[in-house]
Known about the structure:
The structure is a homodimer. Chain A is mainly alpha-helical. Chain A folds into two domains: 1-49, Orthogonal Bundle (Arc Repressor Mutant, subunit A), CATH 1.10.10.60; 60-188, Tetracycline Repressor, domain 2, CATH 1.10.357.10. Helix content of chain A is 73%, strand content 0%. Chain A has helices at 7-23, 30-37, 41-47, 51-76, 81-96, 105-112, 120-142, 148-169, 173-188. Chain A is elongated and about 65 Å long. The termini of chain A are far apart. Chains A and B meet through helix 6, helix 7, helix 8 and helix 9 of A and helix 6, helix 7, helix 8 and helix 9 of B. The first copy, chain A, binds a DNA duplex through helix 3.
Amino acid sequence: MPEASSPTRKRIVDAATKLFYAEGIGRVSVDAIAEKAGLTKRTLYYHFKSKDDLIAAYLDGRDQPNLKQMAGWFDAAEGGADRKVEAIFTNLARVARHPKWKGCGFLRTAAELASMPGHPAVMAGSRHKTNFEKWLAAELSARGVTAPHMLAREIVLLMDGAFSSMLIHHNPDYIGAAGHAAATLVRARTSGSQV
Amino acid sequence: MPEASSPTRKRIVDAATKLFYAEGIGRVSVDAIAEKAGLTKRTLYYHFKSKDDLIAAYLDGRDQPNLKQMAGWFDAAEGGADRKVEAIFTNLARVARHPKWKGCGFLRTAAELASMPGHPAVMAGSRHKTNFEKWLAAELSARGVTAPHMLAREIVLLMDGAFSSMLIHHNPDYIGAAGHAAATLVRARTSGSQV
DNA sequence: CCAAGTATACCGACTAGTGAATATACAAGC
DNA sequence: GCTTGTATATTCACTAGTCGGTATACTTGG
């Protein structure tokens, strides 16, 4: 039985992460991942029982790093909750200009696996999005915003919309518009002010 | 040279539409499309020069029907612009409960082809989303809403977010939340009222 | 006779996954 | 201090099937 946290396993997940994100799940072969990781396909299948398992491991491994990235942008921004929320979108628009940016890996995987609703990778994506929404609601709540859970969900919807629009139009203006709308929604629910 | 609008061509596009939407681009073989259309692969390749061309034809063919669907829901709804906008989301949440619903074909295709930014199918998707945004801005403008273009874009972002969230969570509540937020944004920009 | 359209049959490349053997390391028996 | 046993980890070679695309030949209507 393979070790749960072996360095080899990590090498495989790292290689899979790069390839799956860059090319998409269906366009990456197990052979290509094995080659990128510097080992044979048989070894890969020693550590993962199927490609589907590896896809799920790829997204599970992105949960915490992605949350930390968002939280970092939020914490670093000056100003109130509205500014901090908008900062996430501003940073998103910045990184989305990079040619290697290919949208949100969680959403893209869910789109590609739409015909397999119970797929472990889709569920990993669902967990990640829920984690983000909960984190955001807690941050908003701590800043005295009214109806923080509803607001967090609206911001998540705008963010996922921004990911999708950017992917189809390749125009960062959509992310800017989403950030502006999100900041407006936050201000509308900040005590002492109204839109 | 094949006829631009032959019945055979239509049969191929119809078969491709059903399969591509149900399974995703990468999971459908040209053989499967030919079989579903009741002809051989060689005939398919007489009418389309490549699979990529057929993918683009699939999305081009969905542009007008999708717009008509949205416009139909909008027109049929009673009340002001806010109600009409929310009606689109309400209807979307209803059809999204059907087991055959697999999200927005334009967004899913863009996600699957993220590594090929200039792909004709992605561009067809971009055109469709732009058409929808323009139609919505015109409807909002005709009803005296202020800043109709910005508002239309925000609603489109919420809608694309709703498509994505529904696909990853399989929970129509997200579409409801998006519809509620969209209606609120419309009311905030309707003369004589404020959020 | 000719051209449009369709069919059969095939190509080379690639696909996920596996069988059987082997290398490595470490523990137990003596 | 050996040797034997066992679990982990890795490799090569392979299967059975699918992929997008095509060479060639046939049919049919004008």
